[in-house]
Each structure stands twice: as structure tokens, then as C-alpha cells.
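Input C-alpha cells:
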């Protein structure tokens, strides 16, 4: 194993140290999406800013010219590139036609993120904390919830509104091109300015916002701990997938071992 691979492995292992299996899966998914964005960004950059790769095709004479600080490309091409970069607000190439800034790469990276994050079918790793109470799942227990009848969060290509007056729908623009909206529904005291901003930031960073069972009202009536079975909820896993928990005529019990309503759920399935 060479030095680079060793460093990559050390970084990989460090990012997963002390995490649960579910959390490790989420980090793996996050790395997978990051790699997808980086590859797309490089492809966009090569297509949109081919002038930054011109030196790679230099003849021996051209290469000598560049070393002298002279751009070997014809003047019409040089002027065209200068105008293009000026229109985009980018740093101009040096006198010999070499890129001296990463601003075009940053522009392409943002474009790649927008394309990837606009995919409604993208499996997004869970955000680290609940969108309402900002606590991590290992602090609260239970499951991550993304949707219920009366509250939830999702992406949509359509602007929505209305719904129950106590649990209204709101549409928050995420991207304008393409038109992507965050569809949120639920109590206005929960979906306040701060929680809406938090959900938007999660989506803009490629994460899936969620809320805990306490904030989602799937808690024990005796001790307020999560119940074992969050009925009527779509729950989110570390791999970005979700499943619906049906409403069943059962008493799921509480997951708090100190509570009178405690049930060891594995023994009651």
C-alpha cells in the first residue's frame, strides 16, 4: 500500500471511528454523493472552460512560447476567452494563457451540486440532528421521521399550499433552475423561521432533514421517551432509504427501561 492509499485509509477510518452501523452507512453515502459531484464538476469544467486545458495540447514551439510568458493561441481566440470570462465575473487567464485562480472550478462545483441535489430521487444521508430540537438521534433514541399525516418535509417540483389550517403546507424555493421547492407541513410553531432555514440548509448540503419521535409526537404518555413503534410515520435510515410504519392495533410500549410502560421490543415482535 503506497503512502497516498495509506493516508486515504487513515482518513476513511477516522471519519467512522466510534460510529454506529447506521451512522457509518450514512457517512458512506455522503462520500458516494461527494464523489459523484466531484466527477460531474470536472466534466462540466472541461466542457465549459476548455481554454484552461489548452496548454496540454501545446506543440514544442507553443510550450516554449508559454514559458516566455506568451500565449500561443491566436488573438481572436484570446479576445473571445477574455470576454467570456469577464461576462462570468471570473479571473482572467495569465498573459501566457494559464489559469491563475480556482474560481471557474468553484463555479462548476456549485453547478454540479445544483444538478445532483435537484434530483428528487437522490438518496440523501440524514442530517446529524432533528430539524426542530437540534438533538442527535443517539441523544433521543427512537427513529428519524420525515413524514406523517400532520407534519413532514419533502422536495417537490410543484409549489404547494393549503392543507389543514392547523397543519398547513408551505413551499420554500430551493433552486430556481430547475424549479425545486421544499414542501413542509405541520404546526407553524414547529415550522418557524429557524427550522425552515435549517431544513433548507440541509437540502443545500445534500442532507435529508428529519425530526425525532419526541417532536413528531410518537412518545410515551408517561415519560415522554420514544415509543417502540412510531405508527403512521415514514422513517429515515442511514442509507437514505425510508419506509412507512403502519398503524396497528397494538400497544408498542416505551423504550425507556426506567418507565412503567417499558417493553423490550425485540421480545414483542
Amino acid at each position: 500500500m503506497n503512502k497516498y492509499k495509506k493516508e486515504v485509509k487513515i482518513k476513511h477510518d477516522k471519519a467512522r471511528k466510534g460510529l454506529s452501523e447506521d451512522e457509518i452507512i450514512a457517512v458512506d453515502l455522503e462520500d458516494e454523493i461527494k464523489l459523484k459531484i466531484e466527477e460531474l464538476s470536472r466534466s462540466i469544467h472541461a466542457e465549459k472552460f476548455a481554454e484552461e486545458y489548452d496548454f496540454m495540447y501545446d506543440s514544442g514551439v507553443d510550450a516554449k512560447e508559454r514559458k516566455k510568458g506568451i500565449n500561443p493561441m491566436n488573438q481572436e481566440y484570446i479576445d473571445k476567452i477574455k470576454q467570456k470570462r469577464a461576462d462570468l465575473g471570473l479571473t482572467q487567464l495569465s498573459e501566457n494563457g494559464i489559469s491563475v485562480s480556482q474560481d471557474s472550478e468553484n463555479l462548476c462545483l456549485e453547478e454540479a451540486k445544483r444538478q445532483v441535489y435537484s434530483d428528487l430521487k437522490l438518496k440523501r444521508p440524514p442530517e446529524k440532528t432533528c430539524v426542530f430540537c437540534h438533538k442527535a438521534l443517539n441523544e433521543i433514541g427512537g427513529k428519524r421521521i420525515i413524514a406523517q399525516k400532520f407534519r413532514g418535509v419533502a422536495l417537490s417540483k410543484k409549489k404547494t399550499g393549503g392543507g389543514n389550517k392547523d397543519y398547513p403546507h408551505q413551499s420554500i424555493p430551493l433552486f430556481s433552475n430547475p424549479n425545486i421547492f421544499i414542501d413542509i407541513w405541520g404546526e407553524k410553531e414547529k415550522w418557524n423561521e429557524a427550522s425552515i432555514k435549517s431544513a433548507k440548509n440541509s437540502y443545500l448540503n445534500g442532507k435529508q432533514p428529519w425530526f425525532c419521535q419526541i417532536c413528531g409526537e410518537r412518545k410515551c404518555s408517561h415519560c415522554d421517551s420514544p415509543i417502540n413503534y412510531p405508527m403512521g410515520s415514514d422513517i429515515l435510515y442511514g442509507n437514505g432509504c425510508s419506509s412507512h410504519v403502519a398503524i396497528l392495533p397494538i400497544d408498542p410500549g416505551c423504550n425507556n427501561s426506567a418507565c412503567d410502560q417499558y417493553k423490550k421490543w425485540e421480545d414483542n415482535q
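The longest helix spans residues 21-48. The helical segments are 3-16, 21-48, 60-67, 75-87, 103-117, 137-140, 193-204.
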